[in-house]
Amino acid sequence: MKQNVMALALLGALASAAHAQSSVTLYGLIDVGITYTNSQVTSQGGHSNVQETSGSDEGSRWGLRGAEDLGGGLKAIFTLESGFNVNNGTLGQGGREFGRQAFVGLSSTDYGSVTLGRQYSSMVDYVGPLALTGTQYGGTHFAHPFDNDNLNNNSFSINNAIKYQSADYAGFRFGGLYGFSNDAGAFANNRAYSVGASYTTGPLNFAAGYLHLNNNATSQLAANFNSSGAVTDGLALVASRQQTWGAGVNYSFGPATAGFVYTQTNLTQIALTGFSTHFQNFEGNFRYNLTPALNVAGAYTYSRAGGNAGSGSPHWNQIGVQTDYTLSKRTDVYLQSVYQTVSTSRNSVLGVAFINGLSAPSSTNNQVEVTAGLRHRF
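That's the Porin sequence above. Prediction below.
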């Protein structure tokens, strides 16, 4: 009898140990709001609009995250993350089941991680958190014009990607990504690569990144559309080649954090038109915790375009402000507003304002949005 009891106890202990070595977490975020816009283009001209919006701040998503302890500081890891529109229940990211992220890999305590699948670029991983568009303090509507530097992580991910991210070495982290074209005989067609690094010491945080995309316009627009390539969706501005780089810094003092981010994007052969351009973005941002439950944040971005597309050398001024109140550890409400104006010396296809994430551009050179939103995490 004692032997049977001991055997059962031993089996129970082994089962508990095995269970402790593996974990799978279900998580998600639901963001929905009511948005007023002063001007949107319609077939009858420009009109104001009041509408329900999904993901005005952060894109709604759900996902599974898991890890298995392999011993010696080594783990097998995976993430499957699906974006969706809470207003109608449809999938985001071109209807993909796990359109935001889908990867599996190995993680080492000492050496970092290597993962394979659909993943974010190093610009999102390292520079994005220093711009308010890459955080909960501004999000989708705070993105730079057309999200030209891809710092907002709502829609753009890279397929066929192998990514390395280092461990934290006394505050220094670095990483890189390569997205394969998966195209026989055309290795460089529709491929992507990206690198980035960050350093944190006390209240100071610095980061830099670079992203290179080859032939994404050919892949998205040409008749021989290659749906297996590294870049097949999510880009507002497609070109035969895109090069984006940027850097940012922020500093925290007491309940406040101030930051600055600079990015530049060069686009060659936009949408197979023969035109090329570049965008420069200068963002200053600030956030302050008034109380443990209440915070305010704001950003000013000056952007300009050059090259032989948008011949009027358009430039944008954009101001965004947000206040957020935490109801619980998982639920908060926010009120945000963004104002954008675009100036150009001559007629230009870029001569109308278009705040990121809205359903239509303005009928004029300025646009305002105001959103009252509710966000729940699980």
